[in-house]
Structures are given as structure tokens and as C-alpha cells.
Amino acid sequence: MSTTIEILRLRHLRGPNLWTYRAALEAVLDIGALEDRPSNTIEGLYERLTAWLPGLIEHHCGVGERGGFLQRLREGTWAGHIMEHIAIELLNLAGLPTGFGQTRSTDQRGVYKLVIRARQWEVARQAVLDARDLLCAAIDGRAYDVAAAVKQLKALVDRWALGPSTAAIVDAATARRIPHIRLIEGGNLVQLGYGAQLKRIWTAETDRTSAIAEGISRDKDLTKRLLAECGVPVPEGRVVSSVDDAWDAAQDIGLPVVVKPTDANHARGVSLDVRTREELAAAYELAEREGSEVMVERYIPGTEHRVLVVGGRMVAASRGECAWITGDGVHTVRQLIERDINSDPRRGEEEEYPLDTIRLPENRDVMLELRRQGLEPDSVPAAGQRVLVQRTGLLTDDVTDLVHPDIAELTALAARVVGLDIAGIDLVVQDISRPMAEQGGAIVEVNAGPGLLPHLKPANGKPRPVGEAIVAHLFPPGVAGRIPIVGVSGTRATAAVARLIGWLLHRANLATGVACEGRLYLNMQPVPTAGAPSAWEAGQRVLMNRCVQAAVIESSPRSILDEGLAYDRCLIGVVTDVPVPQGLHDHYITTQEQMRKVLRTQVDVVLPEGCAVLNADCEVCAGLAELSDGAVLLYSERPDHLLRAEHVAQGGRFVTVEDGHVVVAQGGNVQPLVPLQHAGVQALVQRVGLPALLAATGAALALELSPELIRAGLEVAAAEVPDL
């Protein structure tokens, strides 16, 4: 009988959650009879797993050292834990490295929660399913095709994960604690930052990339004319309308020439060193297939280079190489390409590879190059005969440190003339370490949205921090793209607290977005939504709104368990209470200590410059203070609370009720803030309760709003705040 492990539920935790700060996959597993069969009792399991997945030796596990997981496997561990490590290793093999994983038992025998980091949900989900199947096969002694599983995962990575250029920028932003939101699933449109501080990127284009400039760069003839008028050396040439016209242009310019589409991209349809009318006719047909006009220009002898310009300065440079094969008198051109070129580990079909695989007859430029030499894919070159296979598009060597200042200046000028903030400048020179003019070099193309892979993964030389350069272009040092975010969690009057805080921020003349109870408000006006968004979806919509200067987002314990928080960090984190949980049995959350672990998420994400606002009347809630990276403000209905003296003595603020006022105590001072006898305040307390009033007051103080604004805002809140 085959072993079975039942996956009861798969959940996508999209933001900070019970387990980790980042997006994760949570699986609930029922391992059934395997609860009585730890790994050390299953014959051959260790040997099969280590043979199929030798990379498991690198998993430290709880032991904290290389081989730690295998030690646990030998000594005895359970199926859920083994599945966790198999899933992580499969993701590593698929090119989506994942270091985080946890497996914990529940209060139901044989049922476990397995959690792994989910950089991409679709890939992580499949990895967990594959891990289950692989483990069951290993337990039963059945065959399992690991290579096929990894191949499928790689296809999912290629379909769903960010491309390498976009990923490099996002990783650089993450390293600077700049948040990001992916705006298209499976696409490369990404938001960096939140609200009014956000910037957008689409691969290597930004929201500073002018549409006019991009249009100019696509028109190669217009680009050349503008560059020439500004003193940038470019090859002579013009647009042609037919093969005869192209030949006339070539005669005027002087052979050899280059034939290419006017909107050539990634060297598609480009033919170099064209010397005869027959070659020109074939090159014209190749260029015309790209769907734009065709141009003929002077051939510049030398080596192709690509210089990346970001924000008006050169940040990286790559040198191209030609692809050659050498005949042996036995093998065909096709076979030699497969053996000597496509076998290069730098080549592949996916975006992660710096060089493309050459396929015949699909690669028309290669076919043209071969025919110029009198060869076809099935021709057999003579022994020792060198055959040029490909001239263009093979940027392989990093030469950033060799670029002459004159060339760096000219490429930066070319980007400015076209108007691009990020540009890939193609130039041809003999030696990039010498001035361009003295060697007759020229800039041949200016490209918008250049690929970053040649600079991230050069075949030779060191990678360049081009993602960091683009992030620095968008966000100067010290700028993290953040707006003030207030997160509110708990079970008591959290929606009322969120609306009151939003109201006070609105009164402070900040365009404020509020997300609570699945509703959205902008400047305290309801925002129509299609359907009922989840707490995570509502929060994300607020943060994607470029008008929003401050945000207040409510997250219930269930929403944290279902999806995680909608933001990575917040300035202010409010927790109203940590009760004994009710109605969370489907999450196996049944004790107050478990509820504490859920709601600590809100405190865990408070920024160092921020503040946690906690209810001192709930002992467990007040105990969350030790988890805050920022300051802590406590509030209580009891002015004689035992925590008051200690907290104030340590420099903290304590909001409470005293002498008919809401007051804040700090150091030796007690400042009255809100008169409780005011009719508007009495109406507010009657509607939302005193604890909600204190929580909102504490959050407003933590936001550094003035006492006068807080008092005036709360006196009229009952009448002015919608849905309170």
C-alpha cells in the first residue's frame, strides 16, 4: 500500500505573518500513519533522499551547521519536517533560492503546519506538492524523476517570477529597506515605495523614462540625426525603401555597410559587414521582416560594446564577442554549433542565461552569416576551417574599469540628447580604453529599457551593481519611499480606532487613506470597490494610491492568519488587546499564548524610528513592548496603573484619564489633552468606548500631531467621521 500524506490546505501569506516578515506558503498536512514512523525507522529513506537531492547536505536545520538536517534525518524526524526541506531544496534547484522554513505540530495528532518562504506563490505551491510526492516515493522505495520535477519548476519560475533585470532592481531596493509591490502577476511592472513616495519600474524603465524619449530611441534614423547635431559621432547612413535604394545608399556610403531595421532591438534583423549586392538583398529581407523601415549605414570596424547609463552617468560596460566554430571534416555546422557553442553553460533558453541558445534555421541572422560563407546547417566544414556563426548580440565581457573618460562622457551625452534616464548605448570601437575620435569609433544605437543581464552575469569579469545604481537614481541616500503607516490590530474597536486616527491625520492636512473592515476611505470619503476586498487587498489598494500621504490599515487576527499584513513595516503599530481566541479553530489557534504570537506581528513590523501603541490594561498586550524596534507608548483607563511609574521613568509616554481629561504623562510632566466633559467627546466615548479614544490619542501623539489638533479633532469626531 502506497504511503499517503494529505495536504489539507495551502495558504498564501502575502505579507508579514505569524512565521516571518516576508511572503510565505503555509501548508496544513496530515501525515497519517507516518506519525508513528520517524525517518530513522524507514529503511533506505536516508540513502534515497541523499542520492536524489545531494544538496540537502547544505541544510543546517536547527543544528546550525552544514549537514544539520541530515543529522536529524539519521537520528529521526517526522514527515512534515522532511517535506519542508525537500521543498526548499527543489526551489533551490529551480533557481529560486529559499532559506526559510518551519514545521510545527498542531493540537491534532498527525497534523502539522509547514511553512516556507514563497518568493513566488505558484512556484512554491508546486514545490510543496512535488515534495510530498518525492517523499512518499522515497518512503515506498519507488522511482521518482527529480530532473523532471525541477524542469517543471524552472518553467514556472520562467513564467511567474520576476525577470533577472527587474529582480536585480527589486533586490537592491529591498537591501535599502525600500518596499515593493508587484503590480502585474507574472509581469515586470513593480512599484517601489508606498503612496505619494512611490516610483514605478518596468524592467529597466522607470516612471522617469519619457515616452517621447523612448519613441525617439526606437527611431534609429532620428536618433542618429539628433546625436550628430549634438556632436556625438555616429555612422553615416539613411533610411531606404527597396533593395535597389539600399544598394544605391551603400554605393554612396561606401562598402562595407550595415543593414538593419530602424527600430532594431536586441540586434534582431541586423547584418554587419555587408559587401555585395547579393548579401545586401538577403540582409534587406532579414531587416524588413522586423516590421519597420530599413536603414543602411557605414560599417564601423571594431568590437561592439554596450555602455549602461543611469541618471546621466555611466555605471557599467560590456564588450561583445563573435561566435565561431572550427570544422573537423566530420561534423555538420548544426552539430558543431550544438557541441561547441550551445554546450557553453552561459547559454540557455531562459532569461537567467547571459547568452542565448542558437537554433537553426530559426536564427535568421546566423543563417545569413553562414550563407555568406557558402554554408548551410548540414554542411560539413573542412578540418581546421573557422566559421563565423554570429556577430551581434553577444555581450560577454565586463569592461567597466577600462572605459576611457571620453567615451563615458559621450555615452552619457547620448542618453541626455535622446532624453532617457536609463539607456543602453551601443558603440563600436577598437579599444574602449582609448578616446573614440582617435580610433574612428561611433555610437550606433541608443536603447530604452536595456537588459541588465550582461552586467549582472558577465561571462567574463565581475558583476556590476546596476540594480543599486537604478535604485539610487530613483531614491537618493536616506530616502526609503515610505509614508507614515499606522497599523491597527486586535479585537476591540479596531475599526473605530483606525477611523479616528485617519480623521486626525486628515485634519493635519495629509491626504489619508484608511482601510478597515474591508472598506476604503480617502480623506474620510468612502471609495467604491468592486466586491468586498480582503484586509490585505484593501491595504494594498491604499498603498498603491499615489495621492496618499499617510495610511491607516486595520488587520484582524484572522486577516493576519489568512494573508499576512498588507505592508512590510509601519511607523505606528497599535494593538488594542490580546484575548483568548475565539473562532480561530481552523487555524489551530486556541490559546492566549498562540494569539499573542499572531498579534505580535503588528509590533514586530514597527520601524526603529516608529512607536508601538499598546493597551496596558491587557497584561499580555503590554508585554509585547519588549518586541518593538521603536519606542513604546502605553495607554490605560486606570491612572494608577502599576506600569505607569516604571514606563514614564524610562522616558516612555503613558496616556490615561485624570482629573476629567485624557492626559499624557512623560517624565515628570502630565499634560491634559482632551476634556472628557465636552459634549462632542462624551458622544464619541459613548459611540466607540474610552479605550478606543485612548488608543487613537496615543497613536496621534506617536505621530507627533499637536495637542491642539488632537483635541479639536476628537471634539468633533462623533459628528464628522463616517461609519464610526
Automatic annotation (TrEMBL):
The Enzyme Commission number assigned here is: 6.3.2.29
Q: Which residues form the ATP-grasp domain?
A: 224-475
Q: In terms of domain of life, where is this protein from?
A: Bacteria
Question: One GO molecular-function annotation for this sequence?
Answer: ATP binding
Sorted keywords for this record are: ATP-binding, Ligase, Nucleotide-binding
Under Pfam families, the record lists: CPSase_L_D2, Cyanophycin_syn
Which terms does the UniProt entry file under GO BP? SOS response
Record SUPFAM superfamilies: Glutathione synthetase ATP-binding domain-like, MurD-like peptide ligases, catalytic domain
Its recorded name reads Cyanophycin synthetase
- Name its species: Tepidimonas ignava
Q: Highest lineage ranks of the organism?
A: Bacteria, Pseudomonadati, Pseudomonadota, Betaproteobacteria, Burkholderiales
